[in-house]
């Protein structure tokens, strides 16, 4: 295998003061990248920078919140002022304000979207303009299985993470002409094995253990493969020049790496110009739900084209 190298590449990693972000920063810096270590925790960001520099790498800290446009722009300015370019953006920063759906406040909902979704939009847009001129760029949006498969007590978090999938798809489609790729990561990790399965104090659910499959004893088999380092390899590859894949969603759980995808069933198509009635939908609902022969579409336009062709065949 050829070593993946990041010499002369510049990466901005948000939320890099600890956990997953720190693991990504250390791996990229160890492979030659200059890294902007973004974290609102000054001490945490400085410590990661010190680790990188002590190992012979290049890094600088940025403490601005990407939840604001000014903060997002400041991160790009830090990269440009110190290293002259931006090649990689890993949108990793996040926050949580968990709670049952009926109890979630507007403030808790909006605060999570501000960091995860708006922050990723603002930072990526600012960096995208630089990447357009460079004719090169790599974006990684940290989504979550919570936003794809669902999760209890995280309506705000799941909304933001699902929104990041839509944002990623837009960037991948528009960025292709500029040699810019965009992918989404669905990571599951714990800082230490002892943290796996810990119950949040603010879940407001006394029967949490019974409701949550991941809290069952069987999940203990994941404990030795759930550190941030177990996710970093996938991240490093996805933001490398060697990886030209774009528009994908990739899961990293317990050293299992897979592509997650969205597909459409063959469904049922009504002949003729008359709209389908609710009764007809009911009569064909099993066919609509049947996943046999499902299709994937790289964009809305591809779906429309596929349906149009099928309709043409139906008309004969």
Rounded to an integer in angstroms, the radius of gyration calculated over CA atoms is: 22 Å
Corresponding CATH superfamily of the largest domain: NAD(P)-binding Rossmann-like Domain
How many E strands? 8
| Domain count | 2
Give me the secondary-structure category. Answer: alpha/beta
Note the beta-strand portion: 5-15%
Q: Provide mean pLDDT, rounded.
A: 91
Low-confidence stretches: 192-205
Element pattern in H and E: EHEHEHEHEHHEHHEEHHH
Reading side by side through the largest sheet, how are the strands ordered?
3-2-1-4-5-6-7-8
CATH class of the largest domain: Alpha Beta
Overall form:
globular
Oligomer: single chain
Number of helices: 11
- The CATH topology of the largest domain turns out to be Rossmann fold
Describe what you observe in this structure:
With 316 residues, the protein is of the alpha/beta class. The protein has two domains: 10-260, NAD(P)-binding Rossmann-like Domain (Rossmann fold), CATH 3.40.50; 263-314. The protein is 43% helix and 14% strand. The chain has an eight-stranded mixed beta sheet, sandwiched between helices. The model is unreliable at 192-205 (pLDDT under 50).
Gist?
The protein has helices at residues 19-30, 42-54, 69-83, 106-134, 145-148, 155-175, 208-211, 229-238, 278-283, 285-289, 300-315, and strands spanning 10-13, 34-38, 58-62, 88-91, 137-142, 180-188, 249-253, 256-260.
